[in-house]
C-alpha cells in the first residue's frame, strides 16, 4: 500500500501503528528502508535496547574463519523498564475522546529504541519463511472473505468491489 502511494508521488508524514504492528520486525524494517518515520505502540513485555546502546564485536581469534558477529553486552530490558527509567517529565498526558465511562486518557512517552529482533528476511531461508507465511495468510483471508460488498451511498470507496459482467 505504501509502495502504491509512493508510485503516485506521495508519502505519509508518519505511520502510526497499534501494538500488533509494533512487534512486527518486518514492517519496521520495511518502513525504515523506505525512509518513512513510524511510531508504533508496543506491549510492555517487548524488549528493546536504549537507542544509544551499540553492539560490539569480540576480537577475531586467528587469521582464518568468520568475523565475530556484533552483540550487545547486556540483555535488553523490557520497554516497561525503559519507560520507568525515563522519569515523569518525559511523559505527556493526552485525552483523545469522551468514552462511556468518562474521558479516555493516558500518558505517553516517545522514545527511540533498538529492537532486539533482527529481520530474518535478509537470507534465503528467512525470505522463504516470510513469503510462505504471507501466502498462507492471504489464502486464509481470501477464503474467509464474504460475498463482495454491494456499493451503497455510504461505501468508503467510489470503486465497486464486484466484478464487471461485460462478457
UniProtKB/TrEMBL annotation:
Low complexity: bias regions: 155-167
Pfam families, per database record: DDE_5 (PF13546)
Source organism superkingdom: Bacteria
InterPro entries, A to Z: IS701-like (IPR039365), IS701-like_DDE_dom (IPR038721)
Region (Disordered): 144-167
Domain Transposase IS701-like DDE: 1-100
Name this protein carries in UniProt: Transposase
Organism of origin: Streptomyces iranensis
